[in-house]
Amino acid sequence: MNKKGIAALIVTASVAVGAFSLSINGAGPAVPPSVSPEAPVVTVQAASAPSASKVAKAVKKAYGDDYLPNYKLGKSEIKDKYGVASSLYSSAYAEVPMMSSHVDELVVFKAKNSSSKKKILSAVKKYQKNLKENTLQYPMNVLKIQASKVYTNGKYVCFFMLGGYVDTAVEENSSEEQIIKEYKNLNQKAVNAVKKSLK
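Given the sequence above, the corresponding structure tokens read:
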């Protein structure tokens, strides 16, 4: 081999050794995208929406001693009273008073999907309508029933008739419209509690 051939061989070997050294030290040329290792995939678990019971708990807390319902209904009782089958919701909470002289109710449904939500809403509105048209009510409860609230938020459908009774002074010195407005204000506390619990 002549001198030029030997020189060329030395240069080629030097370049190869240098490239090998750079590769080991992590300073080599970027690996083509087609063969680069995949970056780890980070999955962020979205916070699940609270159950109907958790939403109801927030409402009960908002009323404190003015919360009167004290009998929790089971699935079959919910179906009988509100016409809502358990197949329509992922969770539900319904509580009524044990004393027949009281009418306070707290009902929260967490619908499975948009279709079931429409069915639940329709059933709850029908329940409210029948309640308002029922003439066999204690006189002190008539206006409170008229002020009952059907409320929806996302997948939740709620029925509120809460807060006990308005002050005696208000009841004695106000018109029916004003008293109904006061009862509606009492139900607004439940609406605010639901909104806060779903933030």
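Helices lie at 3-24, 52-63, 75-82, 114-133, 139-146, 168-173, 176-197. Try to locate this feature in the token string yourself.
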